[in-house]
Structures are given as structure tokens and as C-alpha cells.
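Quick one:
INPUT:
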């Protein structure tokens, strides 16, 4: 059986915009990776392996989701909002002394046209959209409101960018986050095999998300500029 699931819909009223879904067991991955004085170590190594594998299994399954009318998921009204958010990346890159900001932005923008009408993307794949049921070794994927067409690489690089910065944040168990980041990449490479990625620029996708998320984690991370430059330099090896 698959090690992931999504909430079962119980009731939907499109006119009232009401959707009632199954309550999923587990703890949000974002919260699970946080450390406290009482809990300096968060997820055990044996759990990191299956969580990473389940996350990649989900991404590869969802990209081929059979949607009766996939055109309904094209041209999400949230895309312009998100594009305005990403438009700040150039200024962020300049403020941290990151070279070739315009080139990174151009490369990332080219990804938006890949599978833009034919493949399904979850749309908001980050640690808070993953519930982890440690007892039953399953993850639940929640918050589907940003589901739309697009390449699965958008989801993958969003998750990796979050993990990339969280491993430096003082609020999180950096060792566990770094291990999960590596295991996700390992699971992706194994599952990817000879799959045709259709020209998706994973490195540019990751840099785009890391720059955007740097504003979110700025208060919790020391020397953000040094970290960004280091992670951008390492991004090619991470996603090779």
C-alpha cells in the first residue's frame, strides 16, 4: 500500500464554496522538525528514510493524476499574486550580493511554460502540507487549494528550498532537516531514472524558491547572505 494519502471529501457545495474533508492523523512536518529544550532531537533517522520516499512517491503519482477536465486547473487566479511575490527576487539577490540575479530569474521563468496545460501540480508542497503519522508510517497531504497544472519540479524545488533554509534556522533540528533534504534528493534520483524531465531547470527552480523564502526565515537565520550564496553554489550538485 502507498505510504501517503489525502483527505477524503465528505461534502462539497460549489455555490457556497464549502468543502468538508476527512480529518487526517499525524503531525505537520514543519512542527515535527522544530526543536525545543525538551526535544533537541526531532525525527529519528529510521523515519526520515520512509518519509522522504513517501513524499517523492506522492509527487510522481500526482503529476500523472487523471483529471477529467484538467483545463479547470489552468491559469490559476493565484499565479499573478505569486509572480508579484517572485518579482522581488532580483532585489533580494542584489541585497545579498548574489551574482547573475537576472539570469536566475529568466531561467526560473522558463520553467513556468513546461507542462503548463497537461500535467497536474499540487501547487504548495512544503512541510506544513505534509502530516506525518509516525505510528503507522504514513504521510497525509493536505491543503490542495493551490492545485493547478504545471511541472512536478515546481513542487519538488519548493519543498527542497524550505528544507534548505530550515536546516540553518535556530528553531529547527538542523541535523534532521539536512538529512531529510538529502534523503528526498536521493529518493528523487532513484525514482527519476530515465524519466524525461522535458527541460525543467531544477537548479533555477530551487534558487527562485530559496530567494523568495529568505524573507520568511531571515529573523531565524544568521548570516543569510553567506548561506544563500553557499546554497546557490551547492544547488547544482544537490540536484544533479
Amino acid at each position: 500500500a502507498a505510504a501517503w494519502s489525502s483527505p477524503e471529501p465528505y461534502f462539497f457545495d460549489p455555490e457556497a464554496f464549502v468543502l468538508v474533508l476527512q480529518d487526517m492523523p499525524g503531525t505537520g512536518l514543519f512542527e515535527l522538525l522544530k526543536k525545543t529544550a525538551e526535544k533537541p532531537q526531532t525525527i529519528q533517522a529510521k523515519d526520515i528514510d520512509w518519509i522522504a520516499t513517501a513524499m517523492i512517491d506522492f509527487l510522481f503519482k500526482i503529476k500523472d493524476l487523471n483529471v477529467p477536465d484538467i483545463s479547470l486547473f489552468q491559469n490559476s487566479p493565484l499565479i499573478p499574486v505569486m509572480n508579484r511575490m517572485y518579482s522581488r527576487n532580483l532585489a533580494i539577490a542584489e541585497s545579498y550580493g548574489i551574482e547573475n540575479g537576472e539570469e536566475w530569474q529568466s531561467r526560473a521563468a522558463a520553467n513556468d511554460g513546461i507542462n503548463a496545460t497537461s500535467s497536474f501540480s499540487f501547487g504548495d508542497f512544503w512541510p506544513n502540507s505534509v502530516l506525518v503519522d509516525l505510528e503507522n508510517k504514513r504521510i497525509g497531504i493536505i491543503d490542495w487549494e493551490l492545485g493547478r497544472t504545471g511541472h512536478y519540479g515546481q513542487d519538488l524545488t519548493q519543498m527542497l528550498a524550505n528544507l534548505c533554509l530550515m536546516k540553518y534556522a535556530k528553531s529547527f533540528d538542523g541535523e534532521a532537516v539536512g538529512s531529510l533534504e538529502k534523503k528526498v534528493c536521493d529518493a528523487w534520483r532513484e525514482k527519476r531514472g530515465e524519466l524525461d524531465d522535458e527541460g525543467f531547470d531544477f537548479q533555477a527552480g530551487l534558487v527562485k524558491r530559496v530567494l523568495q523564502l529568505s524573507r520568511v526565515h531571515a529573523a531565524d537565520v544568521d548570516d543569510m547572505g553567506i548561506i544563500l550564496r553557499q546554497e546557490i553554489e551547492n544547488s547544482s550538485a544537490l540536484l544533479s
